[in-house]
Design a protein that fits this description.
Helices cover 14% and strands 25% of the residues. The protein is an alpha/beta fold and 208 residues long. The chain has one domain: Rossmann fold (3-Layer(aba) Sandwich), CATH 3.40.50. The strands form two sheets. Strands 1, 2, 3, 5, 6, 8, 9, 10 and 11 form a nine-stranded mixed sheet that branches. The protein has a two-stranded antiparallel sheet with strand order 4-7. The longest helix is centred in the N-terminal third of the chain and has 12 residues. The radius of gyration is 17 Å and the shape is globular. It starts with a strand and ends in a 7-residue tail after the last helix.
């Protein structure tokens, strides 16, 4: 199961309704590199939890990260939940992000980089985060991160987590709060997605 991944991407996949049922194949089948562009209902959420608990890796981008935050009982919450557009608004801008190159998700990235933020997600870490071995691979700096474009209320995302690695059972959940692959144009953050896919299949090893 260590090489099994499930990838949820793009806001439209998990828009406002989680009610539609999504069958995840026949009982007992493994999920290999599956992509499901639909809303996800209760039965399917249970299948996802089982998939990750048994060693799978769930990689979520942008608003798709709301599913594990809401239904998987992980110690992460949306930092922008309840914030009105009159308080924070970033409709499509390039923002500075601080990466931790020592983390496998940010392998090959510099200490700082640029991410494309379009009504995307940022995260608060609640107290059990460290005790459950969660890690932050990228965050926004303690200043206005705007590099190009437009942003209102930048203080709402300062120091907030942008990429999170959360163990879950025998597997893990990767939350990438922005679209690191946006329209195939954001080459500077492709590594985050590719690293997440490799990371799911990785096993610890000691250097000689």
């Amino acid at each position: 199961m260590s090489c099994a991944h499930l990838f949820l991407s793009a806001a439209r996949f998990l828009e406002d309704s989680f009610g539609s049922e999504l069958a995840l194949g026949l009982a007992g089948e493994r999920l290999q590199g599956a992509v499901f562009p639909f809303s996800i209902g209760a039965r399917s959420r249970g299948a996802l939890r089982q998939f990750v608990s048994e060693g799978g890796t769930l990689v979520c981008l942008d608003s798709a990260t709301e599913l594990p935050i809401e239904y998987f009982d992980i110690p992460v919450e949306s930092a922008l939940k309840g914030v009105e557009p009159s308080q924070f608004y970033c409709p499509g801008s390039l923002l500075e992000i601080e990466f931790d190159p020592a983390h496998p998700l940010a392998y090959g990235m510099g200490g700082t980089g640029v991410g494309f933020f379009r009504d995307s997600r940022v995260y608060n870490l609640i107290p059990d985060f460290e005790s459950q071995h969660g890690q932050v691979a990228a965050k926004f700096p303690d200043r206005n991160p705007l590099l190009s474009g437009w942003i209102l209320g930048d203080e709402y995302i300062r120091r907030k987590a942008a990429v999170v690695d959360m163990p879950y059972g025998q597997g893990r959940i990767v939350l990438i709060g922005f679209r690191s692959q946006f329209r195939g144009q954001t080459h500077g953050t492709f590594k985050l997605l590719f690293n997440a896919l490799y990371y799911g299949a990785a096993t610890p090893s000691a250097l000689p």
